[in-house]
Amino acid sequence: MVGRDHLNRVRSVFPVVFVVFVLALPAAAAGEASVYSVNFWAGLGGSFDDNDAGLSNSSFQFGFSVQPEEQLLVGLRVGELDLSGGLIGDSLDTSIDYATVVGEYRFTETFYESGIYIGLGLYSLDGVHMLGDSFSEESVGLVLGISGEFVLTDRIGFLLEVSGHATRLDAVDTLIMGHAGLAIHF
Questions:
Q1: CATH 2.40.160.20 at 4-185, yes or no
Q2: Alpha carbons 101 and 143: distance in angstroms, whole number
Q3: How far apart are CA 127 and CA 134, in angstroms?
Q4: What is the pLDDT along the chain (186 residues), one digit of tens a residue?
Q5: Is 163:144 a contact under the CB 8 Å cutoff?
Q6: E strand or H helix at 28, and its extent?
Q7: Is 64:17 a contact under the CB 8 Å cutoff?
Q8: Other beta carbons less than 10 A from residue 107's beta carbon
């Protein structure tokens, strides 16, 4: 399914990364607390919409975040949810690529941080109909989630998160995902 259109959509995410980075620079230049992190997640997810995809589909996600204030994170997340394990409408071999920009408020506990986040996303559904013709559909959406980070070292944390996504895709308009992964802070 990796074609020219798919690569163009992936390339279109890079301006968003640049904007998030540029917006974070003034806080870093002012000497305020500013921590950058790169995040890697793997998990499961799916949808309960009118399909049999279930919630046992593999998912991965990469992220970049900046912490302009002590309890505030602004981040970009890019990922894929593979829905090929079930029938989505009349489609097989379906996947959803997404990019979200989120704001997260964190609560500091003794040995971990918990958080709640909300954001906007771009979603792209690609698949193959049962008759063999491929299709693609794009949508904007909202994401709401909760997260936790357990400190392993000064620079590495173990991440857990659960998120719900509301999109305007025809075949799948509600997504639920759970991820675990690592954060590398610098």
A1: yes
A2: 9
A3: 6
A4: 444 554 455 556 556 555 655 555 555 445 444 589 999 999 999 887 766 677 889 999 999 999 988 899 999 999 999 987 666 766 777 899 999 999 999 999 988 999 999 999 999 999 887 788 888 999 999 999 999 999 999 899 999 999 999 999 888 889 999 999 999 998
A5: yes
A6: helix 14-29
A7: yes
A8: 11
Residues 51 and 86: their CA atoms lie apart, in Å, by 8
Report the amino acid identity of residue 169.
L
Q: Among residues 181, 177, 180, 168, which one has the least CA distance to residue 80? A: 177
Using the structure block, give the residue that is written with the tokens 């991440």: 159
Tokens at residue 141, please? 């959406």
H or E element at residue 158 = strand 156-167
One-letter amino acid at 165 equals H
Q: Which tokens hold the place of 134? A: 């491929």
For the chain, the structural domain boundaries read 4-185
Q: Work out the end-to-end distance of the chain between its first and last CA atoms, rounded to an integer number of angstroms.
A: 35
Query: How many CB atoms are closer than 10 A to CB 133?
Result: 9
